[in-house]
Amino acid sequence: MEVPFVAYGIPELTAATKRWTDEYRTEKLSPKALYKVHVAYDSHFMYYLTSKQLAGEKGTYELR
């Protein structure tokens, strides 16, 4: 399996992993709301291109 990076030893990620269970997300996300998702059919989605953002769309992360 090809992965862009492996992160470990980061307390915030460990906490998020424990918190964001299927049950938690089901409880917090409205079944009537529309959400933007990405579906990768070949497991090669590793990069986010800001040039592909929709006009007026806020970035998904802070550029530094």
Q: Could you characterize what this model shows?
A:
The protein is mainly alpha-helical and 64 residues long. The protein has a domain at 11-52. Helices cover 25% and strands 0% of the residues. The chain has helices spanning 11-19, 22-28. It is extended, with a radius of gyration of 15 Å. The two termini are 29 Å apart.
List key phrases describing it:
64 residues; mainly alpha; 0% strand
- The structure class reads mainly alpha
| Radius of gyration computed on alpha carbons | 15 Å
Roughly what percent helix?
Answer: 25-40%
Contiguous helical run count = 2
Instruction: Report the sheet-strand fraction.
Output: under 5%
Shape: extended
Could you write a compact summary of the structure shown?
It is built from 2 helices and no strands.
SSE arrangement:
Blueprint: H1 11-19, H2 22-28
